[in-house]
Amino acid sequence: MLVFATETSCDETSICLMKDKKIVEHITFSQEIHKKHGGVVPELASRAHLEKIQIITNELFSKKIVEPNEIDAFAATCGPGLIGSLLVGSTFTKSLAISFNKPFIPINHLEGHILSTSFNNKIKFPNLILLLTGGHTQVYLMTNENEIELLGESIDDAIGEAFDKTAKLIGLPYPGGAEIERKAQEGDENKFLLPRPLIKEENFNFSFSGIKTHINLLTKKNKIDKTFIKDLSASFQKNITEILIQKLDKGLNRLNSHNIKVCSISVVGGVSNNIYIRNKLENFFSNKSIEVYYPLKEMMGDNASMIAWSCIKNYNKNKVDLLFKPKARMNVVL
Ligand code: ZN
Q1: Cα 289 to middle of ligand 1, angstroms
Q2: Are strands 127-132 and 137-144 parallel, antiparallel or unpaired?
Q3: 3-state DSSP call for residue 249?
Q4: Which end of the chain is more exposed for a tag (fewer CB within 10 A), N or C?
Q5: pTM of the complete model
């Protein structure tokens, strides 16, 4: 099966051509325009998608790897995400589907992240999914290929958002995740004691917004110099990681008490790029004999290859619907 997919839910304009389980071509353009604003500006994001998507699609087809009429289906992210950005990508892709008289498949962005580890791993069930992105922090349980349940999520900021907001408070550029990880390498992770909201609750819910408020107070009390930035980055990264681990530990105990023995965990989304978090999670799960899966590097952030893969994996289950409308919020139903 040959699929052409697009992803435009936030600030990456991405397209992918996938044949069965092979990425034939994958182009992702990260919008630079948001850097000077310290975060994604929705209106600028939709305009930038509009300018770029046609250019990179022409670039892909000019390579003459395949002819557009050989494509079996056209897929696009239809939510959740920024509504203007979703409309650009989905309308563009839908137009291609109509002009080549092929089915249009709407894909849930979160489902794309969730299924990303099944592209390069043989998943052992029950599989816990830790979704760590700039827009979501969620824990799902997949008991088999077709059943998924949301066990918990952040009740306020997403984990990636917490990284970006912390970076902004201490004067680091957007996107903040990689910057904080870099600065943290030379900092004292025990320098600042930061709050750990909801840590005592035996569930998979998280809360990160209070940490940002606490850091804001620290920036008022301290001189923001190189040492402060490094120590705060290290303390923040350690705090966030320990929150994840302690909450996962409590949540797993609860699942065990219901006779659910998790065999593997998939760590997906852009924050799964963070090596410090990965190492700590791997240590924690290896002690429990739980396998840890990651997506391919190119499927970690927002990308069209996970959308193409989601389309191929669930093709027969998806409704072929040319009138499907993008939505800013969507629930995952596999
Ligand atoms: Zn995402």
Answers
A1: 28
A2: antiparallel
A3: helix
A4: N
A5: 0.93
